[in-house]
Amino acid sequence: ALRNAFPTWPDTAIDYFSLHLDNLLRPSSLLSLYRGFPGLSLPVILPTSVFCGYIPLFFAVYAMINLKNMAAEQITLVFFWGIVGLFFFLIALGPRPFGGNEFLNGFAPYRHLCGGILRQLRIPVRFSLVTMISLYIIASFGAAEFLKRNRQKLLRSASLVFFILALQVVEFLPLPYPLQDLTVPAKYQRLA
């Protein structure tokens, strides 16, 4: 009964709403820091534009590189959130992460885990939210390790912490928000 009640979406339609790797590392053109770059001047914001930020990505990589300097409890948490983030990242890639290669696409986790009613969501990029949360948690461990490791240099200078926070805010600041001058067409004004 459920099979007849819900439409079956083809993989190509679902693939449009999947996470693509270039959108993960390419910032949105709405962010003012990156608005001047010519490659980002897209007229339409794609629904799969998920940008994690370069600063959290730096600290997440820093945490993974410096695992040996962390406490055992922190290592366990970093691995846990890393596995959770990787799992949801693979689901967010959708049913066709390898393009037209049907053999490799047969191993896509989205095809095996998201069937029936879950397939009707049609937007695998929603699962990338958990990936971003995992990345930011790992980045917080990396930032803590960075500050702990450089404490002697930073004791006299708390401005570096402020500078990192300011960079994070500036990286995601969408001001001035780009607005289009939307006017009502004349034929609709006459109808009103």
Summarize the structure.
The protein is an all-alpha fold and 192 residues long.
Radius of gyration: 21 Å
Strand content: under 5%
Strand-and-helix sequence, N→C? HHHHHHHHHHH
Largest sheet: none
Structural class designation: mainly alpha
Low-confidence stretches: none
Report the mean per-residue pLDDT as an integer: 75
Describe the secondary-structure layout.
Elements lengths: L1 H4 L5 H6 L4 H5 L28 H12 L6 H21 L9 H4 L3 H5 L14 H22 L1 H4 L4 H13 L14 H6 L1
Helix pairs in contact: 4-8, 5-8
Could you describe the 3D structure shown?
The mean pLDDT is 75. α4 crosses α8 (128-149). This protein has eleven helices and no strands. The chain has 192 residues and is mainly alpha-helical.
Notable characteristics:
192 residues, flat, mainly alpha, 53% helix
